[in-house]
Amino acid sequence: MEYYTWVLTFHVVAFMSWMAMLFYLPRLFVYHVENIEKKEFVEVVKIQEYKIYKYIGAPAMWATIFSGITMLALNPILLDFTQNPWMIAKLLSLALLIIYSLSLEKYRKELENDTCKKSGKFFRMYNEMPTMLSILIVGYVITKSFSILFTAIIVILFAYISYVIMKPKKAK
Fold first, then answer.
1. From its phi and psi, is residue 36 left (phi > 0), alpha (psi between -120 and 50) or beta?
2. Do 124 and 30 meet the contact criterion of CB atoms below 8 Å apart?
């Protein structure tokens, strides 16, 4: 356990770096698709998208995963789900966050190749997912508990936010 707090420190910093990419990259996608006719602007955004994913996001994701595995190896009691049922919810949320992160690379490549058909509105809505998942993860870790009420409130709140973002605007 001597090294646990150092690994935890690295884990938190890696998670923060990963989240920075997860929060910012979809916003770049919004700018990209909403300014598609401005070729010079789009070329600059493509470079930003590539660099933030390849140089910050992907390494930070893997650092988060490997430091998390190291923490579990140093403190295997965390995997005793009878004592730590919150860990199941945290790991499921983490799995969704990893899938989300990998989907951003898929969209980045589509945008790079000018084959993406998603709208700015879609990416605005999609940008809400890491916020929801990070609130769930941090909530489970800090409280060391799983609350169906907490989880339901967060999911319903973000479903409503997504609905508001995606609903068609009324004609004036």
1. alpha
2. yes
CA distance 88 to 94: 10
DSSP letter assigned to residue 171: P
Is the separation of the CB atoms in 148 and 47 below 8 Å? Answer: no
Q: Cβ of 12: how many Cβ atoms within 10 Å?
A: 13
What is the pLDDT, as a whole number, of residue 169? 79
Q: Which two tokens stand for residue 57?
A: 């996001």
Q: With CA atoms as reference, report the closest residue to 13 among 77, 59, 74.
A: 59
Q: Is the pLDDT of residue 36 over 70?
A: yes
| Distance in angstroms (rounded) separating the CA atoms of residues 21 and 90 | 20
> Which amino acid is located at 3 in the chain?
Y
Retrieve residue 83's tokens: 């004592």
For 140, the token pair is: 């489970």
Between CA 133 and CA 43 the distance in angstroms is 31
State how far the Cα of 25 lies from the Cα of 51, in Å rounded to an integer.
10
pTM (predicted TM-score): 0.91
Q: What is the rounded average pLDDT for all residues in the chain?
A: 95
Alpha-carbon distance of 170 to 162, in angstroms, equals 17
